[in-house]
Amino acid sequence: MPRAGSRVALALFLTTCLAPLLPCLAAAGEQDAPSHFPRPSVLQPNVDFWRQVYTEYGLEDFILHDRENMAVIYEVVRVAATANQARAAEMAKSEIQRVRAQYEGIVKALAEGQAPETLGTEAVEVFRLWGCPCPAEALQRAAANIRVQQGLRQKVEEGLRRAVKLMPRILSILRKHEVPEELAALPLVESSFNPAARSKAGAVGMWQFIKQTGKQYLTISRKRDDRRDPIRSTDAAARLLKHNYQSLGSWPLAITAYNHGKEGIRAAREAVGSGAIEDIILRYTGPRFGFASRNFYAEFLAALDVLSPLIQEHGKATSQPRPSPRGLREG
Question: How many separate helices (H) and strands (E) can be counted in the chain?
């Protein structure tokens, strides 16, 4: 469940560290999504989940949830507060295993038709979360779909501090390439605005370019890696995202392609017979379209909720008319 204390802590951070740039974060989250970035109602539980991960749950929190129905949160395992993400995960490991096994057993027992009242209060809550009575097949699937997500509140707070300094240049570059300024929220998802970030897959920099893609837009050599340059990498990301948009015809698809690849999203669109992001997320079953790709657009929308006040504040300083989708499309 969301923690009021965490929400207050983030509000205090915004007030003391970013004021007067950022108004109330809660109000930002309630704003309508920009027209370029629709927010289908079926994706709202995913957006809500990621906003909680970014703003309410810290590194010491481990959320056990269903990987498909993000509104189903079974329990949150908490350890002693620490600034070390890996250390927190190690501290929580045994308790996570115990709690996961507990809920797998509960969900399987419900699938077999056992009455929730005979299984304890946790089972009664699971029964309610899933809106049961429900098909045994759905519960059997749910038993295998329990996933763990570590909270990221501290990482997001660090990212906001970096974003305050970087945002004017980022927005200037996005305007130069005539792409929506809201794309400035994407580095919060990718790296928490950390130019030195490096992923296990070898993605580098604030915009997390892998070498193969980065070489199409940047200089990457033994002596120089422009992926670590926040200005050059922002310029490259703007060009890549604009190209994705021109090829795929919508910003939700362009953003998802940033994670899954342009050709991968083109194949997904053809497979489901629709270019609506919600149709692709709900119906596409391609082998490489996993949890990360399926949630990437929802993560972006959650990040946009967090960054919108900062983007709007800097956008007002040198506001220009936004490009229309028609004007960016090919043909």
Answer: 15, 3
